[in-house]
Amino acid sequence: MSRRIHARRTEGVDKNVWVEFTQLAADYKAVNLGQGFPDFSPPKFVQEAFCDAVNGGPQMHQYTRAFGHPRLVKSLAKFFSRVMGHEIDPLEDVLVTVGAYQALFCAFQALIEEGDEVIIVEPFFDCYQPMVKMVGGKEVYVPLRPKVEGSLSSADWTLSAEELASKFTPRTKAIVINTPNNPLGKVYKTEELQMIADLCIKHDVLCISDEVYEWLTYDGNKHVKIASLPGMWERTITIGSGGKTFSATGWKVGWVISSGHIIKHMKTIFQNCVYHCPTAAQEAVARGFEREYELFGSPESYFQQLPAMLHHRRGKLASSLQSVGLQPIMPEGGYFMIADISSVKVDFNDDSTKDESYDYRFVKWLTKEKGLATIPVSAFYSPEHGKEFDKYVRFCFVKEDDTLDAAEQILKKWSQGK
């Protein structure tokens, strides 16, 4: 065809860090600490629930309720009513989606119009930016910054109250936050969330809160839902993930919890997009939440056991990085740890990457030359702030001990000049 085929909204959003670096890891058969998925199995109780669902009769292989399997929306509403301190209507206030990714897509499509400004706190999960662009919104960025040079914990990275307040204008429609944060691992404290909430209420702005890692917090840190703060239920879109909750990312079961007057618009997008999510996977996630409701807060709860297990692996990775001169920023939550690579001098000897940022060049070198795959942190920043943070790379520690041991051996050989 001689005429332009593509829609202009696809321009400038075609690059994807996951496509690029996942393929690079596969090409070089690297130990993959890049992409955020466990290489261990989900807990047996949800595996058994999935198998039971598949063998549960013909209805488990057919369409269920479009906006969420009845058993799942009921279990989500019951569970999170207790967590949020607000009575959630399973049919009006919950929408089940194909992963948290689609939940985000529905939120931006349903709520953001051309010309609306959306404040995005950096570092951010990389799909926020293209999703805002595709609906004609304008991204406005404000970064978390370390309070002091050489900060060693994600808790030391904070928002400037003055800088954040300056980003709100009459055109601001929403702010997007992610807690625990990917890639940093920051868990927002109540007072930090209250600062954001006060601005949302003052300027009549929506809050899209990506909370897929909510059960993964360490060292006594507690996840707080911004929707639970006074005046925030009716303006907050809370996004969750069955994959992250039960270590089953391939199931692609996500959800949105919000006031029905917001959810109804997201349902419009959903019903004209995918219409329906896999029935058996929804049934299994529902049974998982039913179990966790009964065990909530007890040592038998998976929400207690998983972070306890990952606490050890977080420490293991941090030690491995420190042993070769990479300074980890200890995460308070989530799947990931970023590390400062500025003290390590590498001769990349690769002209094909000379125009790229330092962290991109480092990650490509580490993957190709040493066989260890990671992700550059500047991919989680806007162009205006990326250079400020290109001395960091992201590692995933939600892996088997054998995988982390293999990564440690690669790092040791590198430090020994092998």
Task: Describe what you observe in this structure.
The protein has 418 residues and is an alpha/beta fold. It has two domains: 8-42 and 302-415, Aspartate Aminotransferase, domain 1, CATH 3.90.1150.10; 44-295, Type I PLP-dependent aspartate aminotransferase-like (Major domain) (Aspartate Aminotransferase, domain 2), CATH 3.40.640. The protein has 14 helices and 15 strands. The protein has a seven-stranded mixed beta sheet, sandwiched between helices. Helix 5 (128-134) links the parallel strand 3 and strand 4. Helix 3 runs parallel beside helix 10 (279-295). The longest helix has 22 residues, at 302-323. The radius of gyration is 21 Å and the shape is globular. It starts with 16 loop residues before the first helix and ends with a helix. The model has no long low-confidence stretch (mean pLDDT 95). Pathway: Amino-acid degradation; L-kynurenine degradation; kynurenate from L-kynurenine: step 1/2. Its cofactor is pyridoxal 5'-phosphate. InterPro entries: Aminotransferase_I/II_large, Kynurenine-oxoglutarate_AT, PyrdxlP-dep_Trfase, PyrdxlP-dep_Trfase_major, PyrdxlP-dep_Trfase_small. Belongs to the class-I pyridoxal-phosphate-dependent aminotransferase family. Residues 30-408 form the Aminotransferase class I/classII large domain.
